[in-house]
Structure formats: structure tokens, C-alpha cells
Specification:
Layout lengths: L4 E10 L2 E11 L4 E5 L6 H9 L6 E6 L2 E2 L10 E4 L11 H11 L4 H14 L15 H13 L5 E5 L7 H18 L2 E6 L2 H7 L2 E6 L2 E6 L1 H6 L4 H6 L6 E8 L2 E3 L5 E4 L3 E8 L5 E16 L4 E6 L5 E6 L10 E5 L6 E3 L10
Helix pairs in contact: 2-3, 2-4, 3-4
This protein binds adenosine-5'-triphosphate (ATP) and magnesium ion (MG).
Amino acid sequence: MGNTIELDHVSKAFDGKTVIHGLSAAFEDGEFIAILGPSGCGKSTMLSMIAGLERITSGRILIGGTEVQNKAPKDRGCAMVFQNYALYPHMSVRENIGYALKVAGVPKEERHRRIAEAARVVELGDYLDRRPSALSGGQRQRVAIARAIVREPKVLLFDEPLSNLDAKLRHGMRMELSQLHRRIGATSVFVTHDQIEAMTLAGRVMLLNAGRIEQFASPHDLYHRPASTFVASFIGAPPMNLITVTGDGSALRLPDGTILADHGHTGGVTLGIRPEKIVTGAGTLLAKVLYREDLGSHCSLLVQLGGGQTILIASPFGTEIGAFDEIRFHFPTEQIHLFDTETGLRANS
Ligand SMILES: Nc1ncnc2c1ncn2[C@@H]1O[C@H](COP(=O)(O)OP(=O)(O)OP(=O)(O)O)[C@@H](O)[C@H]1O
Ligand SMILES: [Mg+2]
């Protein structure tokens, strides 16, 4: 079985209010999974239930094929890294990393070997005698990670471990975490509300919405084949444009009759197109730019369609376009996503 994790109809209620609704999923041995979603969707609760810090209300959790939902946290073989990693300020890096081993009564020689190995993995070998106060934020975060991996856990659980770091450090730590995972190979579950973190680190991303799975798929599929309008507007920055249209069997039209794209769909539907997939400079659509943001590599243009609805276009040629200019553009048919307007679920294959 290896170190698989299975969530079998897991539910959680606080004071009678359900926050996780019968969630089922399976993580493979050695996989790097991200749990992504907006604030309050249940990410931390889900992770705490895997770790055993929070009891489940119903369902089963299996680690390596064994039911663990009634086991104490220390008997589940998980180690957790939190956003607020709370190192012991009066202890050296070495003592911080080795504390859990000392408490567990691991003999001194083995303790030192394992501390040295964990410090090597996070590249803190030269810092073992320092106090946390003499480390940078990123180095402190690495001590927290070393403290987790020194226990040689079957499963590594991370709850927003990078969100206290500045943007540059976060990028560096992302690459380090990714390499670390390749080196130690523990099944890893990483909670974040940052889509970039989820998309870059994880092999698969579980996107939660109000305690339910919206989509559990590879980063590629989340971006290219979003299962719902929720996923479509959560993944990607700026988010996908969603436009209510009607198909007549050969084209998708706005209420005023304007043809937005050629397509065989018939009936009312929500058309999705990413700002960066709209082609500017040619095409049958013409609109006035209401607002322009120059982001260096491209420009973000807000334009108004017939009928008043606004959409965003990300254009590499944006700098040649002024605010209040009219631009030509078109929606390539192969870039069009269709969603059921009532349910929000994906409607095209
Ligand atoms: N101990 C608790 N008692 C009551 N309600 C709780 C408790 N812990 C969490 N909740 C509720 O459960 C829901 C999910 O919370 P959770 O902390 O898992 O969200 P999250 O996805 O981690 O959010 P964030 O991104 O803000 O950290 C929220 O509505 C929250 O208010
Ligand atoms: Mg949380």
C-alpha cells in the first residue's frame, strides 16, 4: 500500500454546522497534493483531520491502508508544518530540530545523525548552533520543515507554510520544497489559498468550495478543462471571462445578436474564455477600451461588449493600444469553454 491516504466520505461538523460534506479522495504513495480554495472552505480542517488534531464527525481516513480516524496524532505517522511555525527561541537550531526526538527518547547518537541529515536536506548544516532570532524568515521556515522531516514521517502535512514570507522568498521556498519532496518522497499534502503555490508544487490539486470538492485534477486540467465556473474563475489571473450567450447551432450570440464565436451549440449557455486567449489586432469584434493596465510583459484591457457586459483581454500588444481606443479581437473557437448557466458545470468536452 505504501503511504497512501484515503478519505472515505469524511464529514465534519462544528456545533451541528457541517463544514466538510462527505468528502472522498485517494492520494497515492509519494504524491504531492495541494488543497486549494478560498478562506473558510475547510482546507485547514481537512488537514487537521488527517493529522488527528481534529476528530472527524463521520466517514473514514486510511493511511497506508489502515484506518486512523480513531488513532492519536502521534500514532498516524504524520508530521505537520504550520504557517506560524513557533520555534523555541531559547533553543539552538539543532535543539529545535531534535526536540521531538529527545522527547521520544531517541538515543543521542541516532538523534545527532538524524538532525544532521534533516539539516542537510534543508541546507541548514552551517546554522545548527544559531538561535532562531539570528535567522531570516526563510531559514526559520526551513528549521520548521527540518523539525518535521527529522521524525521521518510517512506523511508530511503543510498548512500555508509560506504565507508569512515575502514574494521573493516564497518563490525560493517553493523551489526548495519541490526539490525536498523529490529527495525524501514522503506523501505530502499542502494547504494553500494561493493558486500559484498549488499549481507549481503539486502533482494534483484538490480545489475545495464550501467543504466540497469542485475539482481534483492536475494543474494542467484545472487550467485547461475547468469542471465548473467556480474553478474557471478561481484558477488563472486575471480570471476567465464568463459571458451569458445563446447558441443557434452555428454561432454563439450576445442578447443583442452580436456573434462572439463560431460554435455548434444550441440554446442558452455560459461562454468562458481566458483573457490571455483572446486574440487582438484582427477579427470581427470591435470594442472600446475602458481601462488599461500596463503589466510590462502584457497589458490588461477592460472592454465593453454590445449589451454592456465588460470583459478583460490580456494582450502582449497592449502598449500600442490607448485607453478609449477601439480594438479588434476575436475568440478562437478552440479556446472556448461552455458551462451550464444554471448549474455552472462544464458543458463542452
Ligand atoms: N474550532 C472550530 N469551531 C467552529 N467552527 C470552526 C472551527 N474551526 C473551523 N471552523 C469553521 O469551519 C470552516 C472551515 O474552516 P477552515 O479553518 O478549515 O478554513 P480554511 O479553508 O483553512 O480557511 P483559511 O484559508 O482562512 O485558513 C469555517 O467556516 C470555520 O469558521
Ligand atoms: Mg486555514
